[in-house]
Specification:
It is built from ten helices and no strands. It has about 260 residues and is mostly helical. The protein folds into two domains: about 1-65, no CATH class; about 70-250, no CATH class. The N and C termini lie far apart (about 65 Å).
Amino acid sequence: MSGMDDMQVFLTYGDIALASSLIVIVLIVSWKLRLQLTKTLLIAAIRTVVQLSFIGLILAWIFAREQWYEVLLILTIMTLIAGSAAKNRVKRTYKGLLTDTLLAVSASAVLVTAIAIVMILKVQPWYTPQFIIPILGLILGNSLTAISLTSNQLIETFHEQQGRIEMMLSLAARPFEAVHEPIRTAIVNGMTPTLNSMLVVGIVSLPGMMTGQILAGADPTQAVRYQIITMFLICVSSTLGCTISALLIYRRFFNKKKQLILPQ
């Protein structure tokens, strides 16, 4: 017998151990070139195995039960961790940054995920874990990167261009007019990784979701359709997240008198 439908590879712990041993190559390169990444690489490799193994057990349990409140709890935890991760990637922080990143991440990712589940995929019931959990996870992972890039650049720019912004305000410019260019640049910077991925997808790279489906034996045409949908979802979510984040930061840096302030 032959054909794609008959070809399915089941991975064992031995296969995982063999793949893990390839990290030795990376460690040797780090040691030879004195990259000082040995400790970080080891920690990252160990965390990858532990975290994915742990989440695999949890998802297997949740998939078997399909209880809406358990799925909702997982989604909430994922969103909170994503917001915290986005905040931790910002170098120059301020009081309230965590709240802002959480709002940006949750508002964009949850809205886009809801549209995907209810209107595009038409999943019944909406809390079917095999759909909503991976889709939200995929969107969160990309959104938090975009949001952190936007936040990081915008905050740095407000500090670096304080004099220019205050000069424009003194010349009767409205607050948003004075910072429109930094906001635009920061949002574009946050969107760049997503746009770059969209420009080369299918030509230079095969995304992880599509590759995973094909390796699992799915029809390539269906895998492509799912990938197209997820790429658009990621693009919309990242755009919304970057925009919301920029506007929340803008609000923090101006008081009611329309004066520029640098929050501590």
